[in-house]
Amino acid sequence: MWKVFFLNRNFIKESVRDELPNLYEVKVFPKYVGICGTDKNIYLGKKPVKEPLVLGHEIAGLTEKGEKVVVFPNYWCGYCNNCRRGFHNSCRNKISIGVNTDGGMAEYINVPKDFVFRIPDDLNLELGALIEPTAVAVAAVNKIDKEIGKIIILGGGSTGTLISIVAQINGLEAFIIEKDRRKEEILKEKGFEVTSELEFDDRIVVIDTINNQESIAIAQTILKNSVARSELIITGLDEEQINLNRDIIVRSEVTIKGSIIYDRDDFLNSIKIISGNREKFNKIVDKVCSIDSINECFRKCVIEQPNIKVLVKMDPI
C-alpha cells in the first residue's frame, strides 16, 4: 500500500507494508479528502504535530464491498468522565486521525466499525467529503437559542460558509464578516450574505470560527452594539488565550458557548442535510486537485490563494 506523509512542509508518497484490518475494523479506500484550517495550521507550523504524519480527516470513500461511506475521524475512548456522560466530542483521550495519528491521504485506512457511516448510493463522494466539516456547522447551529433568528459569522472559510448554509436551511438569517477582500468577493460570487455592519437592533448570535484577539475584539464590538442577552459561540481554535471585556459580557448578559467538533447525531444529521440540499453545498468547493500534485496544489490553492474549500482526489486526475 502507499501513504502520503507530511514532513517539513512537504508531502511525500511512499510505499509501506500492507496493514490488515482486525475483526473490528473496516478497510476504507479514500476517494476524496477535504483540506481544512487544521491542515493549513499544521502545514504552517501553528499546530505542532509529530511528523512524519499522514494528514486528512474529511474523508469519503469506498469499502471493499463498494459501499459509499464517510469516516467519523474522532475516536472517543468511552471511559473518561466526559464519555461516560455522553459528551463524546469532548473525550479526554480522543484519537483524531490526520492530527494525532495517521489520516486519510493513503491508499486505504482501517477504521473501527463504529466510526464508518454509509451514505446514499446516489450521493457523489465529493459532497461526501463535506459531511465531516458540515457536522461541525450542525453542532454549532444547534447551540443557538431558539428565540434568536440572526447570526453573524466571523470568518468566511469552510466552517463559516457551512454554518451559513446550515443556519439558512434552519430558517435563520446568516451574515458573514470576512476581512480578506479577495475572499469576500469569492463569497459574494457564491451567493453568501456578506456584511461589514457591527451594530444590530436585535438579539443576535456571533459565531467566531477564527478565535484570535482580532476576531474576539470584533465579536465583542458587535455584542456591545446589539441587544442584551445575545450569544457568542466559539468554534475557532486559532489562539489559546483571548481577552474578554467584563463589562460587555456582564452588563449585556452575553451567553458564551464553546462548540467543539460534533457528536454522532450531528454527523448523521449532516448526511441528511447534505443529501437533501446538494446544490447549496456544491458551491463551496473551489478546487479539486490530485493527490499526485498535492505539494503544488496545497501551496498555491490553500496557502497562497484565498479559498473556501479545496478537495484532494485520491485517484490521479
TrEMBL record:
GO terms assigned for molecular function: metal ion binding; oxidoreductase activity
Protein name: Alcohol dehydrogenase GroES domain protein
Family per similarity comment: Belongs to the zinc-containing alcohol dehydrogenase family.
Signal sequence, start to end: none
Pfam families with a match to the protein in the record: ADH_N
Domain Alcohol dehydrogenase-like N-terminal: 25-121
Keywords: Metal-binding, Oxidoreductase, Zinc
Cofactor (UniProt): Zn(2+)
InterPro entries in UniProt: ADH-like_N (IPR013154), GroES-like_sf (IPR011032), NAD(P)-bd_dom_sf (IPR036291)
